[in-house]
Amino acid sequence: MRFLFKTHYNQDIDHLKHGGDRFWYGLLLVLAAAAPAALGTFYLGELNLVMIYAIAGVGLMLLVGYTGQVSLGHAAFLAIGAYTHSLLLGAGLPFLLSIVAAVLVSALVGAGVGWIALRMTGIYLAIATLAFAMLTEQTISRAEWLTGGFRGLAVPQASLFGMPLTQGWQHYYVTLTLLVVTLLAALNILRSSTGRAMVAIRDSEISAESVGINLAVYKTFAFALSAGITGLAGALFAHRLGYLSPDAFTFLISLQLLLMVVVGGVGSMRGVIYGALFIGFLPQLLAIARDTLPPQIAQAPGLEPGIFGLILVLVILFEPQGIFGRWLKIKSYFQLFPLYRRATHRRQKTYLRTERLR
Amino acid sequence: MSYLAVEDLSISFGGIRAVDDVSFDVEEGEVFAIIGPNGAGKTTLFNLVSGIYSPDGGSVRFAGRDITSLPAHRIAPLGLARTFQNIELFEHATVLQNLLIGRHVHRRSTALSHLLFLPAVRREELEHRRRVEDVIDLLELAHYREQRIANLPYGVRKVVEVGRALCLEPKLLLLDEPTSGLNPEESEDMGFWIEDINRDLGVTVVMVAHDMGLVSRVAGRVLALNEGRVIAEGSAAEVQKNPAVVDAYLGAD
Question: CB A188 to CB B114 under 8 A?
């Protein structure tokens, strides 16, 4: 077990708390940077997709895991980011500017949705965001003059610093850089008063108000931030798809994003990465399973959403902290060996609360 | 003009007048207690003063300013902090984070600078941390600093909530039953802390309490409520002897 001797408050503020952290995260970054040399085109593409999912996951995690606002409509922000980016790129805007614009447009729409949804919590908020996603999907399919509707919209070729982005490894590095930037920004927010205000709203709205947190402002901000980051993922996702149409951003995508956050571990940024890996490689596992299953089951419509839903339910029932929580348990098992007890991580009962004021 | 002036405050829930024309004044620097049997309207009164509810009638003035219709998040920055009877802490955060959230009203930087975590933000964070550590020292919470609230025993949570309120650096502290559910030792500690907070930090304290031992020890003046109305006001000894108060607690005859 590691005992940290702290001599300055900065040690609690820093992202990397000790030498071990610096070593392992450094190694991870080196491995990620070296991946294109080692992996084939297919797996590099899959890894790229996983990282795009991870960016969207960071956005959704800030909202669901840290502000406590559930969203079943994040595919809409993915779509808004993707379409904005493609349209602006088509209009001749440089790659980076168009990405920034995609983030801003998504954030603006997110702020609007957040503001409208201020009074809703829990299941009602989930339904409202779901409705918003449906609305966005419909709008995109009807607004043919802009988006091409179901005929689709070809994503223009991008170029960065005068270099056309044609190769898989180029997209990989762009995504990797943006993922690192997004993660750092999210972690920065979380270690400052804005992030603490979000956590406060998640845990007790009435207390948050009484320490001076303006619920409306911070909820709207959390929605905008979450939508903006998801829009960034959408812009990158557009290049991955190559051709945009409304049916690329269905309810299933929203469900996948939520699944990623829950399976990874609500309330942890590392959980996002675990969740993204899980979601990224789940379709492969399903494809393999399809080959072995009898055709009546394997070809049944709605198999994928069914399995996603089932995993969501099982995780919430048996491992509410997700993969990250399981990792913490395994870690403390070895740290405390042979003294580990299951009760260490049992959820404590909540003391009676009668003041349910909303 | 008194420091906290409550005048003819009323609120009804359905057909029940939970607080009915309540008036009282609290002077700067005193410890003021509000007592009364269950359902007397003590907590509702707190919720009215701290802006959680808005009253049907009457007014609340704090430090010369009308705060009757201000929402809770606008009242806290004026220097008014509160605790809750049934503990409303941020359960999935650590003690340290809970206390840092209490510093929210003292933030100076914007969300944009938080994204980049500019050097000014770090300086501000260090400043918040130093202030929080003062509170941790005062309330002897050092042992629990890194623990999540969900893993803490009830008595410690009660203290953390007082700590969070102190982190606002309030001028007026509303304590809703600070000793309910505490054992005699913990209650006694809480009594000492309330005295310290009042005397050494110069914070005016208004508290709702059931524990008459605590009230007579720390409170200068006592207000007794029953069924939403004021039935007595005065020193602890006077109020305890008042026949209306005895009736309210024990029933007439």
Answer: yes
Rounded CA separation A200/B102 (Å):
10
B134, pLDDT greater than 50: yes
Q: Report the C-alpha gap between B60 and B33 in whole angstroms.
A: 17
Q: Does the residue A280 lie in any domain? A: no
Closest residue in B to A204 (Cα–Cα): B90
Dihedral of alpha carbons A85, A88, A89, A93, sign: negative
Dihedral class, residue A138 (left if φ above 0, else alpha if ψ from -120 to 50, else beta):
alpha
DSSP lists the bridge partners of residue B175 as: B207
Residue A275 lies in a domain: no
Identify the pLDDT of residue A354.
Answer: 43
pTM: 0.91
Structural domains for chain B: 1-79+170-253 (3.40.50.300), 92-167 (no CATH)
**Cα–Cα dist A274/A258, whole Å:** 13
List the one residue out of B77, B215, B217, B92 whose CA is nearest residue B148.
B92
Is residue B56 over pLDDT 80? yes
A211–B102 C-beta distance less than 8 A: yes
DSSP state of A167: S
| Complex ipTM value | 0.91
- Pairing type for strands B221-226 and B204-208 reads unpaired
Per run of 10 residues, the mean pLDDT along chain A (length 358 residues) is 80 85 92 90 91 96 93 94 94 92 97 91 90 93 84 84 82 95 96 95 93 95 97 95 89 90 90 92 82 78 80 86 85 80 60 45
Q: How many CB pairs under 8 A join A and B?
A: 132
Q: Give the amino acid at A344.
A: T
Q: At residue A250, what are phi and psi to the nearest 5 degrees?
A: -90, 180
Extract the tokens encoding B194.
Answer: 């309330």
Whether A164 and A254 have beta carbons less than 8 Å apart is answered as no
Structure tokens at A12: 């609690």
Q: How many CB atoms lie under 10 A from the CB of residue B174? A: 25
Give the total number of structural domains in chain A: 1
The residue of chain B nearest to residue A349, with distances taken between CA atoms, is B150
The parent domain of residue A79 ranges over: 36-255
Instruction: Provide, rounded to the nearest whole percent, the portion of chain B with pLDDT above 90.
Output: 79
Angle at the Cα of A50 (from A45 to A54), degrees rounded to 5? Answer: 145
Instruction: Decide if A211 and B164 are in contact by the 8 Å CB cutoff.
Output: yes
Q: To probe the interface with A, which of B96, B104, B110 has the most A CB atoms within 10 Å? A: B104
